[in-house]
Amino acid sequence: MTNGVPGMWLSLRLREVDAMIAWLEAVGFTELAVHRDDDGLLVHGEYRRPRGGGVMVGADREVSRWPQVPGTQAAYLVTDDVDAAYSAALAAGATSLYEPSSTDYGSRDAGVRDPDGNLWSFGTYAPGG
Predict the structure, then answer these.
(1) 22-79 pLDDT, tens per residue?
(2) Nearest to 79 by CA among 100, 99, 114, 51
(3) CATH of the domain at 79
(4) How many domains does the chain have?
(5) Which one of 19, 38, 82, 103 has the fewest CB atoms closer than 10 angstroms to its CB?
């Protein structure tokens, strides 16, 4: 971290901007900044997790220097309550990939596909922790 800011952020290009922002907030992200153009298009948004890390988002649009395809990303979120995160994700429009379960290495994990198609896993295992 530099000045308290995590050194790595996931970047997502969004098709369903409003649904995805609501989904991110439902699974525990909080808004840091939102920048829209004159037409209301989300150009850049920043959302942070309470345990560190974050996601930068923008509406799907042609950006030649960053040819990102919506719905093709995957992320792992550390949480103390996998079951609650999984339930909140489903209630906010995700579809289940696998229900919460315990692993051989002592974590509790679950997986979902968000409203835009990205894959998210929730787990109690904290890498490097």
Answers:
(1) 999 999 999 999 999 999 999 999 999 988 889 999 999 877 677 788 889 999 999 9
(2) 51
(3) 3.10.180.10
(4) 1
(5) 38
